[in-house]
Design brief:
The chain has eleven helices and 13 strands. It is of the alpha/beta class and 300 residues long.
Length: 300
């Protein structure tokens, strides 16, 4: 039985695939994906916007990991960009599920990415999985994304939705661009730095995905964040310390707004998110503090 992964050629996918056996990855460009992935990974060409997924005959998929979605951090949020962010997640997930439910053999579990953007700007609230939804574009996208994932539950498939925080790793995500700047002494807090910063090491995120697949009692929403969120100012100081530099150049909101447009607003969201449900159900974090996570990342 195979594990099907969408978005498998991205940052998180590249860390996840080595943890899985007998993997099938979907890609818009199968030849390019095959050149970038291990030889034992099967690649199926599929455009999520064009229609339902069609798998080769007699393919048996026991688990699905849905990581697809246009990057929210690349490019200004024009109306066209926002449509791409939404459609790549919502329509793509719906077409994925249409293909899976039409297949003779349905998966046992469907693990779908979501985001802490669901909570919007939560201020000083302690945010567990039961916290109410926020407002705004990212909240709307996350809600629709999760509702799309839930559609496969009608076929008797166990659904796990991971509300993922800021993913930290050396070869992608937020730190890929931040570490070089901090090494040059150009890093700094965002505005006052008082906003809560929900983070997770990419290794813990991929372990949580693997755990969700293998844990029959795991179902519904889980916050995929480390148990020790920090304020942005502390994150900035810890990152600077990890590369032996000072962080003295705060980034004002108005400047980021001019440079990045509407996306800049999300950088100032305060989200004191904790993974209450994952901890209660037995998931063990390897990197539960920011200094340990950054030490491992900078070392690599």
């Amino acid at each position: 039985m195979s594990t099907l992964v969408t978005g498998g050629t991205g940052f998180v996918g590249n860390h996840l695939l080595p943890l899985l056996d007998d993997v099938i990855v979907t890609s818009r460009n199968a030849d390019r994906a095959r050149n970038n992935l291990a030889e034992d990974v099967e690649v199926v060409e599929w455009n999520p916007m064009a229609g339902p997924l069609t798998l080769p005959p007699d393919t048996n998929v026991s688990a699905v990991v849905n990581l697809m979605g246009d990057s929210i951090a690349e490019g200004r949020w024009s109306e066209e960009k926002k449509k791409s962010i939404r459609d790549s997640r919502v329509i793509g997930t719906k077409n994925l599920i249409r293909g899976l439910t039409d297949a003779e053999n349905k998966p046992e579990v469907f693990v779908s990415a979501s985001a802490v953007g669901f909570y919007g700007d939560a201020g000083e609230d302690l945010v567990t999985e039961s916290h109410e939804a926020g407002t705004g574009f990212l909240t709307d996208v996350s809600r629709q994304w999760e509702e799309a994932a839930d559609e496969i539950a009608d076929s008797g498939v166990r659904v796990v939705k991971l509300r993922i925080g800021i993913v930290l790793g050396a070869d992608g995500g937020a730190l890929e661009k931040m570490i070089p700047l901090f090494k040059m002494g150009l890093g700094g807090k965002l505005g006052s730095g008082s906003q809560w910063f929900p983070w997770i090491h990419v290794k813990d995120l991929t372990r949580m995905i693997h755990w969700a697949i293998d844990t029959p009692k795991a179902s519904g929403v889980f916050n995929a964040t480390a148990p020790t969120p920090v304020r942005n100012s502390e994150f900035t100081q810890q990152l600077a310390k990890s590369v032996n530099r000072w962080a003295v150049l705060p980034a004002p909101k108005f400047g980021l707004k001019l440079a990045l447009g509407e996306f800049a607003d999300s950088l100032f969201f305060s989200q004191n998110v904790i993974p209450e449900k994952a901890i209660a159900e037995g998931f063990d974090f390897k990197f539960d503090t920011l200094p340990a996570a950054l030490a491992d990342i900078v070392k690599s």
